[in-house]
């Protein structure tokens, strides 16, 4: 492709990203839908239609681009959440119960449901089936902003912020945490493909991949977040208090330090970034510096999401679906329409948010259960695992992941705006606008 055409396409795409939120605000169309469709159309243009995209050959590039995109989204999600999580407060832990239920019940059920469907009726080898379940189980912090909280709320009593929007809080907190918690099952698939019988690795896997790395990631992220918040808000020298001058690049510094430090000592970097963002957000909660940090992360996330979604659309019409068969279609349809909604709803049976509170009602449970958006994280997990072990079904996995993400973008994208708008009206809230990603 000529460089001039690349510039033209990128410039036009950036313009599209800038105007889409305003155009789509009142329509049942999400920006991801339009961006993926645009990428598909670009892929059909004569200058590029004969340039096939092989995800196996481009695996390394795909892994790193999606990795950075998810990291930025996790930082943004952590900074956007207003509800505090205090480690020594039972009430605080209870207030986060929607997240714990989605992580502890819905996510394992989803992994198991997808893996068993692929391995049993569809005849996929166990390692690939488990990897598929682990990759598709996490909801996505990148493509799900239409059903998530929009950003830090600074007005009013910080203790009461976002308490009335349990649906958006549940989906946002789930997206922030489950990307890191999917990793143990990705490693289980890698070990199953490369390390022999389960009995030879299950004990160290449980002790380190399932428990140890989670603890390390959370601790490192919390420590980095505390240090960054201390520097920004309470440094002894005024010149070091970045919050007073409104320098938002601290958010990017915190992201990189938290991720790098956690990965260096063996923890899960995704969890570390989210924990870091939550910790920074917990300090001086009413300070408008949180909004400045979130804004710069949001801008970067928009740009990265633009690249990823256009690339996904391009790939869909240039070879990504070449190995899709009825089994991949069955997995995608079952996940989006059956497995995730059932697992999500079951996880909230008997749910109470706080002592004496009613919790999520029937309709809200259905909304939270259904809007398990799949996206960029799934691509990253397949790329990571395929680079660490050999999966003979790798090309089929890529096609199935691509189809499932496209299906999720369309189904959830069409329904997100009207469903969330109706919930807002029923609860007396103003419409929460939509974002690009």
- Give the C-alpha Rg: 21 Å
Number of strands: 0
- Gross morphology is globular
Q: State the helicity in percent bands.
A: 55-70%
The mean pLDDT is 85
Number of individual domains: 1
| The CATH top-level class label | Mainly Alpha
DSSP strand content: under 5%
Structural class: mainly alpha
* CATH domain fold name: Na+/H+ antiporter like fold
Biggest sheet descriptor: none
Q: Name the helix and strand elements from N-terminus to C-terminus, one letter apiece.
A: HHHHHHHHHHHHHHHHH
Secondary structure topology:
Elements: H1 3-24, H2 31-44, H3 59-80, H4 90-95, H5 97-119, H6 126-136, H7 166-181, H8 183-194, H9 202-234, H10 242-245, H11 250-264, H12 269-281, H13 289-316, H14 326-347, H15 362-370, H16 376-388, H17 394-426
Helix pairs in contact: 1-2, 2-13, 2-17, 3-7, 3-12, 3-13, 3-16, 5-6, 5-7, 5-14, 6-8, 6-16, 6-17, 7-12, 7-15, 8-9, 8-16, 9-11, 9-12, 11-12, 14-15, 14-17, 16-17
């Amino acid at each position: 492709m000529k460089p001039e055409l690349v510039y033209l396409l990128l410039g036009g795409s950036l313009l599209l990203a800038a105007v889409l939120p305003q155009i789509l605000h009142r329509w049942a169309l999400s920006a991801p839908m339009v961006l993926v469709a645009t990428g598909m159309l670009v892929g059909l243009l004569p200058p590029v239609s004969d340039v096939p995209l092989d995800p196996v050959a481009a695996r390394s590039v795909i892994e790193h681009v999606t990795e950075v995109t998810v990291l930025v989204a996790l930082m943004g999600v952590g900074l956007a959440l207003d509800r505090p999580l205090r480690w020594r407060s039972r009430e605080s832990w209870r207030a986060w119960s929607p997240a714990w239920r989605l992580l502890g019940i819905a996510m394992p059920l989803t992994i198991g449901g997808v893996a068993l469907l692929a391995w049993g009726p569809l005849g996929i080898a166990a390692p690939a089936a488990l990897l598929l379940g682990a990759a598709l189980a996490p909801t996505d912090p990148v493509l799900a902003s239409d059903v998530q909280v929009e950003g830090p709320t600074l007005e009013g009593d910080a203790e009461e912020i976002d308490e009335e929007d349990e649906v958006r809080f549940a989906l946002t907190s789930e997206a922030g945490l489950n990307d890191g918690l999917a990793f143990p099952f990705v490693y289980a698939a890698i070990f199953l493909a490369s390390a022999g019988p389960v009995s030879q690795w299950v004990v160290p896997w449980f002790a380190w991949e399932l428990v140890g790395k989670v603890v390390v990631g959370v601790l490192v992220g919390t420590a980095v977040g505390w240090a960054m918040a201390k520097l920004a808000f309470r440094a002894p020298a005024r010149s070091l208090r970045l919050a007073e001058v409104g320098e938002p690049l601290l958010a990017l510094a915190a992201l990189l330090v938290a991720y790098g430090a956690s990965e260096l000592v063996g923890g899960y970097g995704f969890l570390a970034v989210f924990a870091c963002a939550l910790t920074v957000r917990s300090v001086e909660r009413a300070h408008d510096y949180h909004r400045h940090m979130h804004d710069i992360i949001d801008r970067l996330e928009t740009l990265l999401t633009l690249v990823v979604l256009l690339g996904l659309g391009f790939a869909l019409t240039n070879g990504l679906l070449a190995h899709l068969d009825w089994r991949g279609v069955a997995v995608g349809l079952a996940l989006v329409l059956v497995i995730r909604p059932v697992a999500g709803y079951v996880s909230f049976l008997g749910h109470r948010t706080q002592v004496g509170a009613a919790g999520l009602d029937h309709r809200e449970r259905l909304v939270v259960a259904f809007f398990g958006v799949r996206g960029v994280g799934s691509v990253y997990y397949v790329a990571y695992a395929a680079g660490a072990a050999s999966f003979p079904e790798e090309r089929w996995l890529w096609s199935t992941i691509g189809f499932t993400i496209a299906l999720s973008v369309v189904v959830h994208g069409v329904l997100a705006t009207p469903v969330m708008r109706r919930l807002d009206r029923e609860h007396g809230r103003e419409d929460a606008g939509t974002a690009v990603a």
